[in-house]
Design goal:
Blueprint lengths: L6 H5 L49 E4 L7 E3 L8 E3 L2 E3 L12 E7 L2 E8 L14 E5 L3 E5 L33 E9 L2 E2 L5 E3 L2 E6 L2 E8 L25 E5 L7 E9 L7
Antiparallel strand pairs: 1-15, 2-5, 3-4, 4-15, 5-14, 6-9, 6-15, 7-8, 7-14, 9-12, 10-11, 12-13
This protein binds magnesium ion.
């Protein structure tokens, strides 16, 4: 016997799109579906992340909270850890001829959301690239530059918030030396085929002091550093593991850091 549709449903004028078809014996007829229901997705349900007053999401991995350097190690066995001063991690600048000694995380990361705060010394010396230089290297290979760029001329793809030598920042949001500044970034690691071919370049979106400075830029390869620095062209991609340590650069300037956390991110398949 056909199911009687309540008058109230009809009056609601849902404009039902699913027209009931004769159902096999014993099978309930399909219900009328409001059209807007067809575009609703109910699962999977996003996990809950809480954000307390500290601003650190509940699922973040805290890499430095001011108390210790347990998450870090020098990149060289003969290198030293940096020092903690008033809750900040301060680079102990190497002195030539000793080569610089960056710090890297003990944990490896692929795609991440990063928050980090940094400060150029108030009494910073030097000019150009020799003025408060440091940097954040995703996977130890892809640098977002740290530099005193409030009052310091240099090549624009090497100023603060540049993806070093690859992308100048959209704007210069730098604060004065001595002031704390922040980076918030989303880094998507490059993808490589089993034979080493590049399938997808690394991509970065970044905010400097809350201001958009890099919008989904594709990297041409690792940013120049170390053995690749003095080359006339930028280094190409070379296949590497899916996860590698995050690195902070010792560029012989006592830059300070605080409140460093990351959230490894997993994007839906195909995104
Ligand atoms: Mg640098």
């Amino acid at each position: 016997m056909p199911r009687k549709i309540p008058a109230l449903v009809v009056a609601a004028a849902f404009h039902a799109v699913a027209v009931a078809q004769p159902a096999p014996t014993g099978t309930p007829p399909p219900r009328a579906v409001a059209p807007e229901k067809l575009t609703e997705v109910w699962s999977p349900v996003p996990p809950v992340v809480t954000v307390p007053a500290s601003g650190i999401p509940s699922d973040a991995i805290v890499l430095f909270d001011g108390s210790n350097l347990d998450a870090w190690k020098p990149v060289r066995a003969d290198g030293q850890l940096w020092k903690i001063v008033d809750g900040a991690m301060v680079i102990v600048p190497s002195r030539a001829p000793t080569p610089p000694c960056d710090l890297q995380t003990k944990q490896a990361f692929g795609d991440v959301q990063l928050h980090l705060e940094w400060r150029i010394p108030a009494d910073v010396k030097g000019s150009g690239q020799d003025r408060g230089n440091s940097g954040v290297f995703f996977m130890g290979l892809y640098e977002i530059q740290i530099l005193e760029s409030h009052d310091n001329q240099t090549y624009v793809n090497g100023q603060a918030a540049s993806i070093y030598k690859e992308h100048a920042p959209l704007v210069n949001a730098s604060r004065s030396p001595g002031e704390w500044q922040s980076y918030d970034a989303v880094f998507l690691a490059p993808r490589f085929a089993d034979d080493g071919r590049l399938l997808r370049p690394a991509r970065i979106t970044a905010f400097h002091n809350g201001v958009l400075v890099q919008h989904d830029v594709a990297l041409t390869g690792p940013t120049p550093n170390g053995s690749t620095f003095h080359q006339p062209t930028l280094p190409p991609y070379a296949a590497h593991p899916a996860k590698l340590p995050l690195l902070l650069q010792d560029h012989r300037s006592p830059v300070s850091f605080r409140n460093i956390w990351v959230r490894p991110i997993e994007l839906p398949v195909g995104k």
